[in-house]
Backbone:
């Protein structure tokens, strides 16, 4: 990776960011039921019709190793893992996704849209799961070599709206108690105060068209900036 710079977060952490080469790296993140998958698909469709090459990925998963780790992490009948092992499996899946898919695509100038990234680990395993965020940042840096999205769109959803949207069977992490899910929502909200990369909060309680319009405004803005650099 080429150009890099150092950013200190409010909690005193130093994150060495690597600029993604050529392609634009976009992330949709937030609590389950926020509408990330719906909006990621729409965004990819829009960018493709704008004439861009687009790669859509999901984290965890997206590679043979990542898909196996995803099953270990999320299947309801999976084996037990302690919080640290769980965090490391999410990171291993992410490292493989970057090596196999994301970095080659960005090098080739492709726009990459990811459904979740490192912020999810900070919130699910950190804020809600009890692992010190400083440790997650350190392991995260090792897993990503400092690569962060050019823009993270944080879809903020209320407990009520999310509940109404989650009619399908819940995975292992979605089955955790309401208090865990509340800590996740709170963790995402406070993360924007101390995030060492561009992040925008989007009200995801609104109808899908309005949410998408807000997302597109933010993406157009970062695309314009990206094309100037
Ligand atoms: N996890 C973790 O713990 N640590 C990590 O580091 C990472 C992940 C990366 C897998 O995530 C789990 O792993 C996740 C966090 C954890 N589990 N939990 N909890 P995932 O991304 O694969 O699964 P998910 O987030 O649970 O997906 P989801 O429930 O499908 O949520 P979504 O993608 O945000 O929503 P959606 O599929 O786009 O929409 C759900 C439904 O709502 C669907 O019927 C839509 O038509 C509807 N929808 C969407 N938008 C709207 C609006 N605006 N209004 C009304 N209805 C809507």
Residues:
């Amino acid at each position: 990776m080429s150009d890099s710079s150092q950013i200190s977060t409010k909690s005193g952490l130093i994150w060495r960011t690597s600029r993604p080469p050529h392609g634009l790296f976009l992330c949709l993140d937030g609590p389950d039921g926020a509408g990330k998958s719906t909006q990621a698909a729409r965004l990819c469709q829009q960018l493709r019709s704008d004439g861009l090459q687009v790669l859509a990925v999901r984290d965890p998963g997206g590679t043979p190793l990542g898909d196996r780790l995803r099953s270990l992490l999320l299947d309801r009948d999976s084996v037990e893992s302690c919080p640290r092992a769980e965090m490391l499996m999410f990171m291993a899946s992410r490292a493989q996704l970057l090596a196999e898919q994301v970095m080659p695509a960005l090098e080739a100038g492709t726009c990459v849209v990811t459904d979740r990234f490192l912020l999810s680990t900070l919130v699910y395993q950190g804020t809600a799961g009890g692992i010190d965020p400083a440790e997650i940042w350190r392991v995260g840096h090792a897993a990503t070599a400092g690569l962060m999205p050019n823009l993270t769109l944080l879809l903020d959803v209320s407990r009520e709206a999310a509940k109404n949207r989650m009619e399908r069977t819940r995975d292992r992490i979605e089955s955790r108690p309401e208090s865990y899910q509340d800590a996740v929502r709170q963790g995402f909200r406070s993360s924007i105060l101390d995030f060492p990369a561009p992040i925008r909060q989007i009200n995801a309680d609104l109808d899908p068209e309005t949410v998408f319009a807000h997302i597109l405004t933010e993406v157009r803005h970062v695309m314009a900036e990206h094309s100037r650099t």
User: Anything to note?
Assistant: The chain has one domain: 23-224. The chain has eight helices and seven strands.
